[in-house]
Write a structure and sequence with these properties.
- The chain is built from ten helices and ten strands.
- The protein is of the alpha/beta class and about 260 residues long.
- A seven-stranded mixed β-sheet has the order 1-2-3-4-5-7-10, with helices on both faces. A three-stranded mixed β-sheet has the order 6-8-9.
- Strand 2 and strand 3 form a beta hairpin.
- Helix 1 (about 35-50) crosses helix 3, helix 5 (about 165-170) crosses helix 6 and helix 9 (about 220-235) packs antiparallel against helix 10.
- The radius of gyration is 19 Å and the shape is globular.
- It starts with 7 loop residues before the first strand and ends in a 5-residue tail after the last helix.
């Protein structure tokens, strides 16, 4: 999407920045952008390296698949080079396992920061960890060939990379349970109908659609977008009256700022 020199390019992750728009690309199409602890650390680093000028982050994957999920080598006895296998981690102290999973989750949490809007541009397979990475973003544009699936439960595991909360918020408890417990595919039409996808486009238009949406998001003043995102992201945890109060406080801040009376 851009020819700029990368800010980060390692372990299957490339970060480029073009003024207010950053692009995070998964760069291992030969393995369908399968995920590993090294990739998660690189994604976490990408979030920390974002310049303050960035307002929109587009997440995309090279090749035919966005991400086919966790690299199965994680469950092999030898694991990844220089990494403990997941089986070895399971045999260790419970507190250490919890801390390790929490560190992995950091790769999935920064996409919803209030100071940015994140867009996942998703084509082909987005399975397991790939589905959860797409769910980590604020918005999703998908290609017509997209195939979402949450396969963890089918493998005797649970989704643990922050995907359960946004999935329930988007499609409701009953549908989320059915998607996770069956491990079935969710295709483009259902994704758009149920709110998993904001927009469906032909695969060859996916990158352009991501840039178009990024440009539209940049049209409004940054502070207004930040305040609006904070209002909306917290709405489900507030009562109606609490949300009214939050709206008044946010609007007061915006009006004072526009009047040159900001604190």
């Amino acid at each position: 999407m851009t020819s700029l020199d990368p800010v980060l390019d390692k372990d299957g992750v490339r970060l480029t920045v073009d003024d207010a728009v950053a692009t995070v690309t998964l760069t291992n199409p030969a393995k369908r952008n399968a995920q590993s602890p090294a990739l998660w650390r690189a994604l976490t680093e990408a979030g920390r390296l974002l310049p303050g000028s960035v307002r929109v982050v587009v997440l995309r994957g090279e090749g035919k698949s966005f991400s086919a999920g966790l690299d199965r080598q994680a469950f092999a006895p030898e694991g990844f080079d220089g990494e403990p296998s997941f089986l070895d981690m399971a045999r260790g102290p419970e507190a250490e396992l919890d801390a390790t999973i929490a560190a992995y989750q950091e790769a999935f949490t920064w996409w919803r920061r209030n100071d940015i809007v994140s867009i996942a541009a998703v084509q082909g397979h987005a399975i397991g960890a790939g589905f959860q990475l797409a769910l980590a973003c604020d918005l999703r544009i998908v290609a017509e060939d997209v195939q979402f699936a949450m396969r963890e439960t089918s493998l005797g595991l649970v989704p643990d990379l922050t995907g359960t909360h946004p999935l329930v918020n988007l499609v409701g408890y009953a549908r989320a349970l059915e998607i996770c417990a069956t491990g079935r595919f969710v295709h483009a039409e259902e994704a758009e109908r149920t709110g998993l996808a904001n927009l469906v486009v032909p695969a060859d238009q996916l990158d352009a659609a991501g840039l178009d949406l990024a440009a539209a998001l940049l049209a409004a003043p940054r502070d207004a977008v930040v305040e609006t995102k904070a209002l909306l992201s917290g709405a489900l945890s507030r009562t109606y009256e609490e949300q009214r109060t939050a709206e008044r406080a946010a609007q007061g801040r915006r009006l004072r700022d526009l009047a040159g009376l900001a604190d």
